[in-house]
Amino acid sequence: MEKKKLTIGLFGFGCVGFGLYEVLQRTPALKANIKRICVKDKNKDRQLPSEHFTYDKNGLLDDDEINTIVELIDDADAAYEIVKSALKKRKAVVTANKKMVAEHFDELQELQSTYNVPLLYEAACCASIPIIRNLEEYYDNDLLESIEGIVNGSTNYILTKTADENFTYADALADAQSKGYAESNPILDTGGFDAKYKLLILIAHAFGIVAKPEDIYNIGINKLDELELNYAREKGLKIKLVAYAEKTNEGTIKTFVLPKFVNKTDKLFSVDDVFNGVKTKSFFSDTQFFVGKGAGAYPTASAVLSDISALSYNYRYEYKKLNNKETLAQDDSIFLKVFLRHDITSGIELKQKFEEIDESYLNQKTGFIIGIISLKCLKEIEENYENTSFVLFETVDSKLFLKLYKNKKEYAIDN
Ligand code: HSE
Description:
It contains 15 helices and 16 strands.
């Protein structure tokens, strides 16, 4: 098949933009060249002479020779305006901006269809792992049951450095920033928001669910404290920030982003540093596991490059699963086994909110409860009680749990 010649207008020349420039220099077989680069700051020192740059977005958007826009800027709102204009001008677009794609999924999909032009964003999820195209194409026929993964490189880097190398949280975060892994506003990483944006994109391609950021609950790693970190150490567990989506027996999708204890037998246990890992479970192929670097200039640029290459063969997402009309599970139907840390005064009250308690502990300053609780109650606790934090052990099959729970209750009443 003849490769299409791509003339690229590049937005952004930060860590990933420069990475892409270098990667493209080394892949001449791909008929793709960057014609011009649009950047914001006129006074910043750049690695290329000034004639490569423009400061006016229309310099790229109005250039008829440019048939492909690659958008790698930091600001999701500005990126949205650029991508929208580019698609309306029938230019193909490649972006790495997960926040922008997650927030405007429906509209971006419609624009692609109205203007008959592709938008690709493999680099937006898990950088070097080709997960979107896999979910879109490979699992088209097999019945996907769940996806679970470490989808944020910075938080995984911080968790690894603090647990294994005795870094302080602040030093590990600064290190992640200096290596170009973290978002410019790092709360997006540490608060689990970046992971949530990625999860929103993944569930659209995995299950055909288009949801909004406010529909998915996210807790990050920024509230973790010594009690749960010590618990993990003592039990030989690791804490990982996990994005999760599973099809329930009722046909709904339960999904969230939470820190989770993982044990040695879990594939995610050995996914450390800036690596990401995604487990899929499907009816015929059973469990599969994808791993690769999840942030940084070259791993992200490699995914952008792969999308550019896919464009040269006229690839586009077909969004076939969007016809599935799946819905999200209600919070009161999601039951989780968690470790809940609380302050010294609220333990008794919080125990009432659990369906079942395995263990509880209290010292002079703080305490924890391990047990099964609904996501609805967890959210209420997070909103109303200070100094609480949770770590997930596992999701609980709600139908099975309710049945066992009901049997237990009836048994208790009868006896
Ligand atoms: N800040 C993101 C991360 C960059 O750490 O995963 C890659 O999406």
